[in-house]
Write a structure and sequence with these properties.
With 88 residues, the chain is an alpha+beta fold. It has one domain. It has a three-stranded antiparallel β-sheet with strand order 2-3-4. Strands 1-5 form a two-stranded antiparallel sheet. A hairpin with a 2-residue loop joins strand 2 and strand 3. The protein starts with 6 loop residues before the first helix and ends in a 9-residue tail after the last strand.
Length: 88
Amino acid sequence: MQIYVCYRCAEINNLGTVKDDDIANRMPAKWLPEQVKSLAAYQNSSQYFPYVCDQGDIFEATTVGLFCPRCEQILKWAYDWTLDWSWQ
């Protein structure tokens, strides 16, 4: 999953790339229906930045991963807190 930060902000804050494997709170897909409901609500929340594909389209939550219907990209993980309603 890509997220974009302006070059100036990255320079000021000494930001670098984080590898997917370095993210400790990743939950791999195959998610339960209740987890998909939480993730779908998160994706539609106006409070948080949703997971997006490489083209910037918002992923849709499914049991097998986050899916982009436009480019068919699939993200097979999500942060644990987006799957358990604790983000609310």
